[in-house]
Amino acid sequence: MSTIQGNRPVTITIIGVLAFIAGLIDLVSGVILFFLLPNEEVVAGFGGSGGLIAAAIGSIIVGLITAGLAGGLLRGSSVARMIVTVLQVLSLIGSLFMAVAYLGIPVGEWLGLAVSALVLILLWTPKASAFFRD
Fold first, then answer.
1. What does the longest C-alpha to C-alpha distance in the chain come to?
2. Where do the DSSP E strands lie in the chain?
3. Predicted TM-score (pTM) of this structure
4. pLDDT digits (tens, 9 = 90+) for 65-93
5. Residue 37 contacts by C-beta under 8 Å, 6 or more apart in sequence?
């Protein structure tokens, strides 16, 4: 595979960009959840306004951290790789719950789910593993 900036594979650059996009999607999803506070049906789906607010804040935090760690992925930080892996698993679970329960905007949640899954898959390919080992 082609490399850029020395020995960084193109797939790592793609991972960095996708991680940033995944973070933005989580951030936007969290903000949208705040706008759904007046919707009693959505609030009930989260077990009350506290649950909805907690989910919104959690989504925003996951998004900010993921977007922030995208640069670490580009530099080959194995710590960034592990943190982003955990955050993307959490994002997958949250997006799947919201998409299936129709609590958010389902199209956006399915997009977030797809991007998070792609980031996870690409983060753990043999070439990515070799890059993060070096």
1. 54
2. 3-4, 8-9
3. 0.79
4. 999 999 999 999 999 999 999 998 988 88
5. 43, 49, 52, 53
